[in-house]
Design brief:
This protein has 295 residues and is mainly α. Helices cover 73% and strands 0% of the residues.
């Protein structure tokens, strides 16, 4: 998650450095061919370059729109996870007996829910489990390929056991189970976004049209200023590449990059909230970041 309104320019340049190099070489080659050799006499109407540029703009507008929808959907899903985590804890505190046994079960749910959030975020990013998650699974002797799903199953199992133990009202039981079901639904939505690959054909077509534009643009520009001609042939495609790279960054919101959905930060927020709700010891705050983003 960005913690500075201005993302590092160097970070973005590193993302497109090879595109800049390739386009620069191609622009010089195309501009040179326009002034030397048999291609010098060829003239291509600038209107054709404008047509290709307009087509590119429409494709990029669609691509950017679809990518932002994926990014925003991921953020909305995690917003729902935050709300449902608080709701689950509020329901447990309200419906379970105000006894030592009831408080212990509520605490068990709270700790498990916190670990579920961290386990889900780590699974979506495809990174190794944190010490917090590892310790919890080791302590409870749990093993699973899908740790987040296992924890929700443990939620349901403990709810069923507590229902029999405390003779919970059926309506209260259904409400708690519905909240757990919404958490499971949010997990499935995240996995759908993660496992659904954005069609590669869009990038292929966009890159093809960019190089078509670079190939024909020099033959429609004024030959009296070759340096300016090469510069324009370089800058216009770079603008299109930059827009496309922005769309590519947004289309995968669980890839552990600065523009990622801030799942770790949201999980820490959930942890603080739930621990406060069960009057648990305060959670140690994460050290302040010196970079311009925090995951």
């Amino acid at each position: 998650m960005l913690i500075d309104k201005k993302i590092s320019v160097l970070y973005f340049i590193r993302l497109i450095k090879w595109d800049i190099l390739t386009i620069g070489i191609y622009a010089v080659a195309a501009g040179t061919l326009d002034h030397y050799g048999i291609l010098k006499q060829i003239k291509i109407p600038l209107a054709l370059s404008a047509f290709v540029g307009t087509t590119l703009s429409l494709l990029l507008a669609f691509r950017t729109s679809q990518s932002y929808e994926r990014w925003w959907e991921a953020r909305v899903i995690w917003g729902a996870i935050v709300n449902d985590s608080r709701t689950l804890m509020r329901q447990l505190l309200l419906y379970f007996p105000k006894s030592a046994d009831g408080a212990e079960i509520v605490r068990s749910f709270a700790l498990r829910q916190v670990i579920w959030c961290f386990a889900l975020s780590e699974s979506l990013r495809g990174i190794a489990s944190s010490k917090k998650v590892q310790d919890y699974f080791s302590e409870h002797n749990l093993k699973s390929e899908n740790r987040a799903n296992l924890l929700l199953s443990r939620h349901s199992a403990e709810l069923a056991s507590a229902s029999e133990r405390f003779d919970l009202d059926a309506n209260k039981l259904v409400q708690i189970d519905s909240t757990i079901a919404r958490l499971c639904d949010s997990m499935g939505k995240c996995e759908r976004i993660k496992n659904t690959v954005f069609p590669r054909s869009y990038s292929v077509l966009i890159h093809f049209l960019i190089y078509v534009l670079m190939s024909i643009m020099p033959f429609g520009l004024d030959d009296e200023t070759p340096i300016l001609e090469i510069l324009l042939t370089f800058l216009v495609p770079i603008l299109f590449i930059t827009i496309e790279k922005t769309a590519i960054i947004m289309q995968d919101p669980f890839e552990n990059v600065p523009t990622d959905t801030p799942m770790t930060t949201l999980s820490m927020t959930i942890e603080r909230n739930l621990m406060e709700m069960i009057e648990h010891a305060p959670i140690e705050q994460q050290k302040a970041e010196t970079t311009y983003y925090i995951m």
